[in-house]
Structures are given as structure tokens and as C-alpha cells.
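Lab manual, section 2.4: Encoding a predicted structure.

Procedure: take the sequence of the chain (924 residues), apply the prediction step described in section 2.3, and record the output as C-alpha cells. A sample record is shown.
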Amino acid sequence: MVVSQRKGKQPASRLAFAVHVGILAVLAAHAPVHAVEKVSSAIAQEFIAFHIPAQPLDKAVLVFAEQAGLQVLFDSQMLRGLTSQPLNGDFGVQEGLARLLGSNPVEYRFTGERQVTLTRVSAEAKGALALGTTSVTASENGNGADWVYQTPQAVSVITREQINKRAPRHAADMLEETPGVYTAVDQRDPGLSINIRGVQDYGRVNMNVDGMRQNFNVNGHQHRNGVMLIDPEMVSSIEIDKGSQSTLGGAGVIGGIATFRTLEASDFLKDGKEYGGRIRAGSGIGNMGNGTYFNGGGVFAFGNDIGDALFAVSERHFGNYRSGRQHAGNLGSQMRLKDVRPEAWKSWLKSEVGDAGSVTRSQMAKFGLNLPNDQRVQLSYLNTDSDSNDAWTYLKADQSGYDYVRHSKNNLSTANYAIDYSWNPDNELIDLKAKLYYVDTQLDRANARHNATADNAFGAYKDRFQTETWGGLVQNTSLFNFDTYGQLSVNYGLEMYQDTFTPRTNKVAAVNEQSLPYVEGANPSGKRTMASLFSNLEYDYNGWLNLSGGLRYDRYRMEGKTGMTTYLKDVRRYEDGIAIVDNKPATRTERFFDVDRESGHFSPTFGIAIKPGVDWLQLYSHVGKGWRPPAVTEVFMSGRPHGGNSSERVFPNPYLKPEESKDWELGFNIFKESLFFDNDRLGIKVSYFDNRIKNFSFMRYAVAMPEAPIPSLTDLSYANNLEDTRFRGVEYQLNYDMGRAYTNLSYTHMIGSNDFCSPDYFMGGAKKSGKTLKSVIERYTRPDGTTGVRSVREYEWLDDPERNGRIGCGAIMGNAAYMPADRGSLTVGARFLERRLDTGVRLRYSPGNGKDLNAHSYKSLEQAMWPKYSVYDLYASYWMTDDLNITLVMENATDEAYFVAMGDVNNLSMARGRTLSGMLEYKF
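Recorded output:
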């Protein structure tokens, strides 16, 4: 039998603490319905406030067990098709259970001090119906995600067990098996950027830690505009909600929500323990360690009914590594110019990836206090600090290979502070949660000097990029029970946050940069404030019909200053029929924008789900709208995007419009227990999704500045796409577990491509000659000192509607230039030695996108270099005792040469080759 919880119901951790669900194979013969053995006097004197609406009986019994603090033993298969009676009020345990069961043909017996056994009797109630023995599969063995297959929405979860099996090096490794989720991975940079169904960057996906938004971004080469720093050692689970949301966390979101939940004291204080924790230490093994030096940490928690505390630390050390070498032909002929310099390419492939070392340290502390009337307050602090380097490959002078040359040394740190409050009294109308938080993320970057041409050279310098986010949220959930007419859940609340960007630098600008009024770099200062009211209603009728509808109102305000240098003319002058610029030059004009604007938007959602006559199949559909105002960087960014002797310039766009999305999906869930064997279970989730975004913001190159005669290839600005930007595809997710063996499958298939079009003159200002203002013969002095006469005409300098309306397409930089390639994973595992030994193999696969691998084309600046790959990982986890575990993992067992790209040709961070590592864990 498998116990599962549906999203939004009682948390699995609380359930595990309150109830151990199983099955008993012995029934009392010829016992009347509800016949009981005498309950102990201690339990009989207890009166408990129950709040349990009518629902399927097996689920109602689980809620009863938690509220009563009992162990309830039963076979969920035998309770299928039965519905509980509502139970509201103060009752003794025995009376409460009898009321809950009502007239159902179920017998209960107290078989221990705090243990109850349920059995089902025959319809004639003449005797007990014998039940077969069914073993228990606890949530620790992998069933903590079963609710995903019973939730009529696009949601995925990564459990702590999944994370532990493979001891991830990069935070992105935790998401490898999640359908619809991609990550732009830079192996040198521990920062994480999440893409959901093709959508990422600038808050389109709400990346958060325990509800605290991680809105830091530094504009790079467009493959990651928005990163978060999270240590896998601190994570208890990850939940991915895809598409627009009318619940908490959906403000300004059009792609989805990625929530990283951190460890809690309750995770280590189960079964009445007053202290507990764990120690984990891992390392690479021998010559196959491949740059894995240390990965581990410790957690200690203590507490009682009054309160609890948790302390955690971790440290991670990684160094240079060797990439894979097999099937290198999949990388194509253009990467590192293999077709031009084959020997240098071979040397690069076989050499160690340089300057890849990083050190990450994390500390976390939480203090919780349980107050009267079911209230709780918790203070939390989480800090993660990481040192890493940026390097690029340069051809050696003798062209025999490539060297890794460092161009910056980075320290990225994130400090999260929060105070949480919850109130969940014995009242179905109140389940209140509130939070205040502050997130401070800083990147200190020491940049190398650049010896370019004289006018473009600059010395070594330091940058600091800082994002401060203040946030607050409050939500409440009210339940309304209509007995046989179903149950209504109403969730409503408010969330607010404010991002402040404050860059600093001591760079002495190059000569060419000094000609511009803004030289502080590509990350501007500014502030954006978001506030959102939301409500979501969910109606469930007898378990077979589910309706949901929500409405969100978002409002934002953006404040900041930016500017640009342009050259403007009042008239155009011709001398002897030749246009003259030098004699009548355009006037240098520094245009400044003091931006203070705000607006709001309503966004609805609606969902429907039905079970068509069988309990194991659910069909569902969901539609919704989303809205994302532009980010500070998109609006105010000005200056050179990077160093060097290149002439690129980025110009601000204070007129950038908010994005509006319309997304819908159609899918089905299958969740079936005891399908082929007793206690096995099958979960399947398949969905088709389609997300259309209006005014999608992208980095447009080859824009034209006001009064410029034509667009310049090296001028860039953010612009709104005039075409609808569409991300659509199909997701597949399957899990089958029969106890001794199991398998997990996930696959994402993306469909179609997008066109990106915007006006060449993104701010207008195209000009043309008008009527003649002056036509004269004038005397002038030649350079040799002699005089002469010439005809002069001056014309009006007028707006040019035809050129102002000219549209350019395809000039896009960024990860959205190409649709992400299909990607999937397949895991097959088996358990031995009374399931203490868990072994398995995982295949990670992508067919690639088949573009640009053998044709070096700069039709677009971006190249879709995403090669195909098939990577096999092996793992084994053995619990030698209940407290001591050893894990061995061999990643990339076949030494595949591969990398995962996200649309940026410069993000060529080859993944690790064959790597063997181990982890020891001790729990106490």
C-alpha cells in the first residue's frame, strides 16, 4: 500500500511524524461493524478538536490519524470507493472514529496503546472479510512525490532521496530528471539559472528559496540573465510549478515557479526525538575523482513542544577536470574550428579544463517557537558564498592547442534573512501563513587588464554588482465543507517585493568609452517594486470533479535614471549638390531619461479535471494569463557589454512594454496501486503545453539610433517582439515502483521556432530632407587661402515615417534565439538486502538540435550548438545500519564528450568525463 498526499493538503513530513501507515493481515471473525476492543483509559479521556470534511475514506483516515496522534493500520485498496462522514468538533478518539466511519462496512480495533487497526467486512456484515498481507513502502523509499500524479496541474518535485543518490556538484544537477526544465550550465560558475518550458531570465521564472525571491542578475553574454546561488546540501526538496499562477509566488511570472525548500528541524526530530542531525562527507576516488575534492556538511537540530532550532554548515571544493572524449564527432566541425585546426582541436579535447576550481561554503540557522493556539514563529538565516573564475580558450601562438586564460576572479555571495509566522487553529476557515524577508546578493569581480588598441585598452579593475530584495507575503486558506455536495478551498493573499540594483566599479574607462555619458558598465542602477493581490478557488466534488479558478492583480513601479549619446541635426546642408557634414556638423546631444512609471494588470486562471468513471485516471486542462513588467537591466542598461577592442554599445529603452502571456495545457494523470503485484504503484503524467507571449523582450542587435542613416550592427538594445513568441511542447513523466525494482522516465519534446522582429529605429528618429529653407550663392575660403563662390541649399530635416516603420527580423542575442533541444532521462534501479542496498543506472539523453554544428554561420550572432549525447551514470547506496550510509556514483561512465547549451555559442563549458565519487552519511 502506498500513502500519498495531494498538493495543498497535509505536508508529508507532518504526516510521517504523526502516523505510520501499514496493513494488518489478521481480522477478527464474525465481529459486528465498528466492534472495538476496550480502549485504554488514558486515550478514552482525551478530547480532540477534529476538522475533517467528507472525502474518500482512506484519505480521511490519514487526516484523523494525524489529528489524533495515532498509528492507523489499514489496506487502502480495501477502502476504495468508500466516503467518510464529516467530523467537526471536540470528540474522544473512539467516538470520533465511529462518527468518521459512519455506516461504512469497516471495523476498527485498538491493537496497541496508540494503535488502531481498520478492516473491511462483507456487505452482509455477517463476518469479517479476510484481507491479504501488504507490506509498507514508506515515503523515504521514494513515494514522497506521488501527489504529483494526482494533481491536475503541471507540477514536478525533486525529493531529498533523489538528490542524495547522486550527490550533485552543480545545483543544476538536481534538475536533470525534471520534464520541462532546462538549465544554462557554466561549469565554472556555481550560479543556477532555470528555464521552464523555454522561458527564463529577468524574473519570468520565480526562482526562490523558501519563498524568498532570488532576483539577482548580471548581464553577461545573454545566456544567463538572472542567477541564484543555492547549496544542494541545504535543500530538502524542490517543487516546480509550470505556467502562469494565481497563487502565492506568481507575481510577475510567465514561465513558472521553482521553489527550493531548505531543511527543517522537524526533518530530524521525528518519533519523539529531542535532538538529531546528520554528517555527510564526500570526495572523488583516486585518479577517477576528476577534480572532486570535497563535498559535504553537517546538520544539528534539537527541540521539543516549546520550540526547536537547526544549525547547518557545508563546504564544497572542486578543481580542474577532464572532459569526456568518446563520440567527440557529435560536437561537429565548427567548435574550436575543428575543420581548420584539427590538431589544436584534438589537444583541446584531451587537455584538462583549466581555471575550473571553485569553493562554496554555506551556513544556515533556524529558530522556531511554538506559541499558544497553534501559532508558530520562525527566524531563519541562510548564507552561501562561492569563489570561482572566468576563463576562455585562446589559440596558442604555434597553433598546437588552446590555453585557458583567466579574465576575472569572482566572489558571489547570497545572504537570506526571514521571519515566518503561521496560525492554524481548530478552524477550517483559518490556515494563515506570513513571511517577511531580505535577500542581499553581491558579486565582487576582479577583472584582468585588457591590452587592446590604444583607444580601447584599460587596466585591471574591480566591479561590485549588488541586488537587494525586500519582500513580504501573507496568505490564508479557508475550507468550506458542503457534505455530499463537495468541498471548496479558497486561497487568497498578498505578496510584495522590491529589487534595488547598485553597481560599483573602479574601472578607468578606455578612451572610446569616455566619449559616452554612461561608462559604469552593463548593469545599471535602479529600483523596481511589485505588489500583487491574488485569490484562487478550488472545488472538489466527491473526488471525481475538480474545478479551479483564480484572479491576480499585479502592479509595479520602476524608478531610475539612464541616458545615451546621440548626434542630432536641425537642417541638412548641400554645397554644390554635395551633402556637407563637416561644415555643418550634427550636434552632440546627451539624452537623459528620468524614469518613474507604474501600471497594473489583471490575470485570471481556470482549470478543470475529471475522473471518467475510474479512480486511477484523471483528465485535466488548465488555462491562464500572466504579466511581467520589464526588469531594471532591460530598461536602463547602457554602455559596453564587455571589455576588449570591440565596438559594441548597448543603449537603454525606457519605453519597453510589459510582456503578456496566454498559456494553456491539456494532460492526464494515472496513479494506480497494486497494479501487477501487491504494493506496486504506477504514476504517469503527460501534458501538452502552449504558451504565447506578447511583447516578448529580447536583446536586439543592429538597431538604428535617432537620425542615423542606417542601423549599425554593433548597436544593441532591448526591444519588444512584434510577433507572438510561442513556446509549446509535450512533457512525459513516468514512475513505476514495485519495491525491489523501480524505474523513472522523463522526456521533454519542444515544438516549433520563433521569429523576433522589431522596428530598426527602436526609439524612432529616422529623418529625411524636407522643403528648401535657403538657396544662395556664397563666397568661401579654400584650404589654400584662395576664395571662391558656391551654391548652397539647406533643407528641412523631417521625420521619415517610412523608415521609422521599417521592421527588422532575426537580429536576436540570447537563449530564446533557438528553442531548447529535446531532453530526457531514464533511471532503472533495484533494491537488495532487505532494501538497504539501492542500485541503479541512469541514462541522460538529448537528440540535439542539429543546427550550426557543421556550418559556421553568423546569420544570427547566436549559434544553436547543442550536440546530441547519451550519458550513463551508475549509483549504489547502502544503509549498513539504520544510521550509516555509503553512496558510490560513477558519472558519465562511458566518458561521453558533451555539453548542454542554452543558445549561446560562448557557453562551451564541456561537462565532466568519467568521474567516480563516494559519500558517507551518518544520521543521529
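Check your result against the sample. The longest helix spans residues 57-68.
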